[in-house]
Amino acid sequence: MIDAFTAMTEKTRAMFAEANDNARTQFEKGSRAFEDMTAFQRENVDAIVESSKIAAKGIEQMGHDAAAYVKSSYEQATGAVRSLGAIKSPADFFQLQSDFARTSFDAFMAHASRSTESALKLAGEVAQPVSNRVALAVEKVKTAAA
Question: DSSP states of 75-120 as a string?
Fold first, then answer.
């Protein structure tokens, strides 16, 4: 009877030891998963910060470009107004007005084209860090599902 009781005690100890080992293993796996998730989220935040920095720098550059365009337009308009003093006939006035309008329109279209190109390029650059994170997340989901 003592042998049966000893055997039962040993089996119980073995069961508890195995349960303890399983619990420890699961806890370690859960801890690693949580650490991985935390690191992944931190990298996501870093990607958003990087996107924000790129956006701020790009918007600043676009602001400088707009200011340069406004300054150039102002100088061109000032020059046209100064030229009014040299006008001798209505034909000269209409020619000056026509030249000023054409030059202003061409400059505006060139500036608008550059601004559009800059905005599209900036949008791509801003989206890239986040896009990289999304691609990585998709890859992790594919790996986890396999």
Answer: HHHHHHHHHGGG--SHHHHHHHHHHHHHHHHHHHHHHHHHHHHHHH
Using the structure block, give the residue that is written with the tokens 């859960």.
30
Contacts of 77 (CB under 8 A, 6+ apart): 100, 104
C-alpha distances in Å from residue 86, one per residue of 33, 81, 89, 97, 103: 80, 10, 9, 13, 19
Measured between alpha carbons, how far is 96 from 80 in angstroms, rounded to an integer? 7
For residues 65 and 115, the answer to whether their CB atoms sit within 8 Å is: yes
Q: Which two tokens stand for residue 50?
A: 């990087």
The pTM of this model reads 0.70
Two structure tokens written together for 144: 């986890």
Q: What is the pLDDT of residues 16-53, one digit of tens each?
A: 999 999 999 999 988 888 998 899 999 999 999 999 99
pLDDT band at 8 (very low <50, low <70, confident <90, very high): confident
